[in-house]
Amino acid sequence: MSGILLTKTSTFIIGPVATLLGYLMNGIFTVLNKIGIPNIGLSIIIFTLVIYLCMMPLTIKQQKFSKLQAKMGPELQAITKKYEGKKDNDSIMAMNEEQKEVYKKYGVSPTGSCMQLLIQFPILLALYRVVYNIPAYVPAVKNVFTGLVDKLASMAGSSEFLQGFANASYYSKQFSNEGFVAGSEMMKNTFIDVLNKASTAEWMSLKEQFPSISSMVQSTYDTLNEYNNFLGLNIGNSPWYTMKEAFGTGQYLLVIGALLVPILAALSQFLSVKLMPQANSNQSSGNETADTMMASMKMMNYTMPIMSAVLCFTLPAGMGIYWVAGSVIRCIQQIAINKHIDKIDFDELIKKNQEKASKKVKKEVDSSVVLRNAGIRTKALANYDNGMSQKEKDELIEEAKRINLNAKPGSITAKANMVREYNEKNSSK
């Protein structure tokens, strides 16, 4: 099936990123397995910690941009107010140029914050895909299913029975794929997908349906239960299922444990948001795109914790542990970042950026002057024959050309060279 093999995604950008992150997840689980702790829950926590630490420089850069944006906010607002009500092209272009100069002065890009988000977004999506589909990226976990699914794939009625599982609807396209035939790799991979998210009750029903392989079903379940056991919870089951099962058996501590997963997911996520620097809602950056994204992010900051809690009730508890781990890590990370940001002298940083911008402008102006003088000199010398040998004139002309040709890419001189070359080609026709 195109794009899916054991739910491993091949989506543009996200697919390759997920594959790379999968290698990391597999490495973590392998190490834990070798030291006698083959635990998926612990692997998820360590995996999440490593990824967020790697993304920390991007987070710091994003928040530095936010601080600088707050500093230049008044200047951008003044420019916006200056051109308020003017819709003609000249006014719009003039306003954009003035805003660009402000961003240049402070040493930041108008899309600086957007770029950090664009880099982080596919990483976070890929992270979710890996955590949600462990067998697709961790061969040791996939191998636990191999013996069982080999038997099931050759047994009549197995496909129809597994399609009755609660999560089987997510893989309807795999079941209907033309490659899904008895004993095929497609069938085996689909069976692993379904069994990986099957509840305890569904595993027991599988034993009853196929008694000839009941011992194999039980041994597979026991191994997975060992991998999925985290502080007494089977993270392969949803908190909702665990609560219903625990109520029926009188295991009330298990009820509390299952209930804590979605609650902690929501609270920790909300806390991590509150620790982040909050932008002034009444202050516009002067950049429409940035303001729109800021408003959307602010809304998501309040809705995402609630959504996380709701989803955690029905998804495998492993996803809830991932959300809790990610939020707690972000909280600790944010405290460290806030201390780092507070130590930065932004006035000094702005001053340095202004000096860099000034030097860049001066360099471009100097290059323009050199270009103009060199152009004039070349033309004059080409027509000058009083008191100078042809050899001397040729040497001076070549020197002038060398100055032009060695212009820095993107500079005014370089651009002028392009114009000159274009004119020379057309004049020769």
List how many beta strands DSSP finds: 4
- Overall tally of domains: 3
How many helices? The count is 19
Helix content: over 70%
Average pLDDT: 79
Q: What value does the Rg take, in angstroms?
A: 32 Å
- Terminal Cα separation, in Å? 57 Å
- The ordered H/E elements are EEHHHHHHHHHHHHEEHHHHHHH
- Sheet with the most strands: spatial strand order: 1-2
In short:
The chain has 429 residues and is mostly helical. Helix content is 76%, strand content 2%.
How would you explain this protein's 3D organization?
With 429 residues, the chain is an all-alpha fold. The chain has three domains: 9-133 and 253-343, no CATH class; 138-230; 347-427. Helix content is 76%, strand content 2%. It contains 19 helices and four strands. The chain has a two-stranded antiparallel ribbon with strand order 1-2. A two-stranded antiparallel sheet has the order 3-4. Helix 3 crosses helix 4 (89-105), helix 14 (252-275) packs parallel to helix 16 (317-343) and helix 17 runs antiparallel to helix 18 (390-405). Residues 1-5 and 376-382 have low confidence and may be disordered.
